[in-house]
Amino acid sequence: MLEVEDLAVEFRTRDGVVRAVDGVSYHVDAGETLAILGESGSGKSVGAQAVMGLIDSPPGYVTRGSIRYRGRELLELDEGGMQRIRGRHVAMVFQDALSSLNPVFTVGDQIAEMYRVHEGASRAEARRRAVEMMDRVHIPAAERRYGDYPHQFSGGMRQRIMIAMALSLGPDVLIADEPTTALDVTVQAQIMDLLAELQRDTTMALVLITHDLGVVADVADRIAVMYAGRVVEQGAVSALYERPAHPYTLGLIESIPRMDDERDELVPIPGAPPSLMRIPPGCSFHPRCPMAQDVCAEDDPPLYAVQPGRESACHFWEEVLTSHG
Ligand code: SF4
Ligand code: MG
């Protein structure tokens, strides 16, 4: 459904070139959920913005690669062509519902507007369908709440409204960028359940962008782990979760709190991700990697095929695999 290949995005700033995304490839099939996991500054959101055609003016440049939707190259489309794709075929939900919704219009009217603008629906028809969408994302008393303003909803309910808007035109691909970050843990789980439910009922492909492996482990089919603008490991969730093949993934898993936790404390990965203006030579993770050896500071690891559908950008992926479980 969506295929990203060797995508590179840079920002040319006065202080230097920020290589936000540097050779990222992933794909997501109909009915599948792909999680793109990474710390802030890993390039995970920038990649999604490129898919939506939102990196199209200085200082941001897509310098390389391909983004295909149903086999069609999106990077070749002009703004008009992208507008026909955006929303109707590929839609996006952002982290911050409050700033994405217009405070001066009722939520119902904002959803209805989608049908009026994009499908030429009559006022009554647009309203009816907006209420239907609010129902689908489980907003209680949708009919009555149609006329309420964004500030009258809780954070979780506002995120449901954003999801309703994104799904209003029936996209084939939904990209959700940190859709639950601003919410408390219980509400996060409810929104994840909702996304999983909405996706189950359709053949929509879902791309979940997150920094929180704990949030996506239950809903994603596959995970692509990003570090310093690249994918460092990808594969099926269960495989990756049970037996990571990259020290960074292993570190992320060890830093997730768990119910059955017998460890006294969580083990966060020491250090911070590099500035995307000064990515370390060799393996970009080597300054933080507990398994680093001399070669790591010099040789940039390619994505090694670990198993079919499973890749790791670590010279020592076999050692990582056997270092646990
Ligand atoms: Fe660590 Fe070396 Fe593997 Fe990079 S290549 S993740 S530094 S062991
Ligand atoms: Mg982000």
From TrEMBL:
Keywords: ATP-binding, Cell membrane, Membrane, Nucleotide-binding, Transport. Residues 2-253 form the ABC transporter domain. The keyword Membrane applies. Belongs to the ABC transporter superfamily. GO terms for molecular function: ATP binding; ATP hydrolysis activity. InterPro entries: AAA+_ATPase, ABC_Ni/Peptide_Import, ABC_transporter-like_ATP-bd, ABC_transporter-like_CS, Oligopep_ABC_C, P-loop_NTPase. PROSITE patterns: ABC_TRANSPORTER_1 (PS00211), ABC_TRANSPORTER_2 (PS50893). Its main location: membrane. CDD domains: ABC_NikE_OppD_transporters. It is a peripheral membrane protein. The lineage of its organism: Bacteria, Bacillati, Actinomycetota, Actinomycetes, Micrococcales. GO terms for cellular component: plasma membrane. GO terms for biological process: peptide transport. Pfam families: ABC_tran, oligo_HPY. This is Peptide ABC transporter ATP-binding protein. It is found in: Cell membrane. The keyword Nucleotide-binding applies. It comes from Knoellia aerolata DSM 18566.
